[in-house]
Amino acid sequence: MSERTTESGIPTHALYRPGDLDGRGYDERLGDPGSFPFTRGARASHGQRGWIQRELSGEGDARRSNEQFRYLLSHGQTGLDVIGDTPTMGWLDADHPFARYAIGTQGVSLCHIGDWRALYEGIDLAGLTLSHSLPAPFAVAALYSIARERGISPAVLRGSVIQSPYYNEDCGYAVHMPFRLRVRMAADSVAFAAQEMPKFHALVEDTYYISEGGLDGVEEMALGFVELRGITRELLARGVDIDSFAPRIAILVNCRMDFFEEVAKVRATRRLYARMMRDEFGAKDPRSWAVNITAHTSGLSLTAQQPANNIIRGTSQALAMACAGVHALEVSTFDEAFRTPSSEAHLVGLRTQQVVQLESRATGVADPLGGSYYVEALTDEMERRIEEMLLRIEALGDPGHLADTGYFRRIFDETTERYARAIADGSLPKVGVNVHTIPEEQDTLLRDVAERKIEPMRERIEHLAQHRRERDAVAADGAIARLDAVARDERENLIPAMAAALEAGITLGEIAGVLRQAYGSPADPFGGAAAAGVGR
Amino acid sequence: MRPLRILITIMGLDQHEVGAVAVARLLRDAGMEVIYTGRFNLPERVARTAIDEDVDVVGLSCHSWEYLYYVEELLGLLDEPGAPIPVVVGGSVVTPRDAAALKERGIAAAFGPTATPAEIVATISALGARKARA
Question: What is the ipTM of this complex?
């Protein structure tokens, strides 16, 4: 290597000195936590409060996931973070021919309102923050319904749901819906939540999952801002007031292994966001300028070789994010390279956070790295590069066209290959993989845990058939007709009709079918493939 | 002699395509003909394509556990009397223990995350040549 760089390729000097910073003063560049431009933190009080500690969870059916939640809460977790299984993420019911071996293996299988009731049975809906990696309108509509059923005002619900309309087709969560529908669903859920669930973050820009293929920190945030700004413009074009939803926007970032770069990225993102909201989108409420940033430590950075090393990686990453002042954190579990987290690994992830928070004492002070010549210079450079890339992409024109013609797909594919090459040629050192390796037969520590599997929960197929038999067919037909009418009229918001459909027993897959057809797509995206299989 | 014909596929809802594409390119660069099915396939379709296209080896890219079930179904469908088409699996979720178990059930080779390009090309070449002669 000719020169040293950060993980995203920013050249670094051996030493940073006062001359590495430009002439901007403290208030312009940094400001105190809670003050514009929020480089040092979104809230004045954050340093003392700590962050919401949670581990991504959900496996099998709702009942099993509920037990998992209770286990994590009983060990000191302070919020919930639920992810759907692959069929649920793709808006497919468990009895779809493509779902059979993926039911509940990589998240929880949620198909109808009864599943949601079971998921949160006995869970304090009003007191806990509930985060969701799930189809956003589904999560918003279902939460709204079950809260009301339990006599809880949706207005008190706290938590979040990820939005990914621009990139989900290309990043492993294909929903087989047209771009226009995906953007509408994002905007509808945000607009609905702004009215009915004002404490809920219905717009979490999830840059974590889009970057898990191998984007670097600059690319991650640039693509994230492109999507976030696109959804914001969609809402503004509808006449939704920026200050009605911007205070509840959050960004879920990735944290790789370059400690200072990841800290700088979070700080640069806060500053870029503040300027954008105030100066470009005209937000007046200071809360609209301060973005909540949460983080998930990189699963891609973990290795199948010597899985115990992943605990060390998680610790370093958790410390970085604690220093960056994130509002919530998930540590990817040490068995991530093999499987959906085991309960043992979940506990280690949670303990990692607790040790960092309580024992390291690194987090008693807000923005402890603020003022470091290196971190400040890197924050400036990250901000410059992120903004440059996002403006370059926006200058290419209609994002729907870019998505449909594979522009984003190419970025994801090329960066994934770049990452694989960097591991293969050793330019990205990975202990246990391309340096300091050991023979496979000696690589036994923690492997038994890592290799234990979750069986697909195929009994869900019969469960779902029973659910369909037992629901009120007349009410179901009425709800479908209503949803169809709403789907065909973009002046209407989809969420109330979706909530009504769920309450009438309509499943996620059925809702998806109605939406796809309203937008000119086949109800079952795999119709051809599945039929070909059955016909043999 | 015609070049070896290899089918590369991904099954079920597994959406990680990069490994499959990289292996397809690797085999093509090594002089083989590669038919790539793209994502979202079920075993029946893969088997029919493999037979119709007269391929010498089927390579299954595996980045979700679904492959463990699909590969068994696929083996059953490809087990033509006389000349079964060898099935090779490879990907991040293929552990040594699963690889050993699947070899007992009839897969021809398994590549975990640490397999080298040379290893993959050599193994598939040998399997394909054996099938082509059969």
Answer: 0.92
